[in-house]
């Protein structure tokens, strides 16, 4: 995605005209083409909202094609969790953990953690890595207070990623 080879097109317009928001906020950066939607763990998503057409009156000039809003899951009333582990035939592994539960009266939490790896692979033996080597780790705790019409969310995100590619 960072090289412009993959973008999200809404209404046929280029991907730079479709901002991707998280919970209504543009925290994914200003270059929407640099966000790889496949890097967003679906375990943390409650729903995906797509607004088609010009939404520049509400979201700015970059929203000529529309807006994609990734809505996070809310804390559950009881302690809950999900885990995912995936191994690929080309030396990649993905593991994701999602936890949720109450943290007192009117309070709750969610916690998302993930570790993703890929070994460098030269599929066609031309001394060029067709798949780069990468290591990515993420952690995102979120605390929610909701009482009546008042709600407060505190979110922190940590992400570490290292990629190596090119010649072997």
- The strand count comes to 9
Radius of gyration in whole Å, from Cα? 19 Å
- The backbone outline, from C-alpha atoms, is flat
- Helix proportion range: under 10%
Strand content: over 45%
What pattern of helices and strands is seen along the backbone?
EEHEEEEEEE
Main sheet? Answer: 6 strands, antiparallel
Count of DSSP-assigned helices: 1
End-to-end span in angstroms? 23 Å
Class inferred from helices and paired strands: mainly beta
Question: How would you characterize the overall build of this protein?
Answer:
There is one protein chain. 2% of the residues lie in helices and 46% in strands. It is built from one helix and nine strands. The mean pLDDT is 85. The chain has 168 residues and is mainly beta. Strands 4, 5, 6, 7, 8 and 9 form a six-stranded antiparallel β-sheet that branches. The chain starts with 19 loop residues before the first strand and ends with a strand.
